Amino acid sequence: FAALHAAVPGLPLASSTVLPGIVLNRDFAAYCPAEGELRALLVTEPLRPALTAPGIEFVVNSEGQYQASLRWIERRTEALVKHLQSNNVKLLLSSTKQDKVVIYYAKLYGVSVVECLLSEEIALISEITGVSPYAPFGDNMFREITETAVASFCQPLLLGSKRCVHIGFTSVCTFQPHCLILCGPVDGVNEQHAVALREAFTMLQQLFKTIDQ
Could you mention a single GO BP entry for this protein (predicted)? Predict the structure, then answer.
């Protein structure tokens, strides 16, 4: 329930509504409008390669070597984002904050980015779509990307003064997610309504379990 409702203070209760899909309470780090169905990719690690791995010492003998290493990283980052584009990935959903060079190339190659997702949000999207997070630096970085989810739409959503991301995923199960938008004059009223609705849903769940038995 926590991931499937959003509270908007400062609006009348009558403005409350139910929206298909899910609403993420953050703005796009990069937004590239796309029409029709689009492919989304979940990631849980930075797409910009690191100069070294944990426990490994990286040694350079000159400023020139260091700058050359940075140029190599930038070229590799561009190649990876371009690889996403070539696999028709139009949306990147990341649990980590991505480097500014990733955002730059995402905008350049038409890939929208939403970052800093909570682990609960990643888990919910995985449950809805049936896909697992993509590991970009495996044995073959440029293999075909098959871990993509399908979204029917992905667009900005303004809730009061807060910019959010509204996504409609094609579900692989009977669960068709909808998001409850709760409006009220102040946060306290919205919290009371949210608690009451959650308790009502819990009661309905228990009732249906009893009937099934």
Answer: chaperone-mediated protein complex assembly
What is the pTM for the complete model shown? 0.83
Among 23-32, 42-51, 57-66, 121-130, name the one with the lowest average pLDDT. Answer: 57-66
CA 202 to chain centre: 27
167: its two tokens: 């996504």
Give the tokens for residue 157.
């959503």
Query: Residues 6 or more apart from 15 whose CB is under 8 A from it?
Result: 8, 181, 183
Decide: 16 and 182 in contact? Cβ < 8 Å. yes
**pLDDT higher than 90, residue 176:** no
CATH code at 52? 3.50.7.10
Residues 4 and 34 in one domain: no
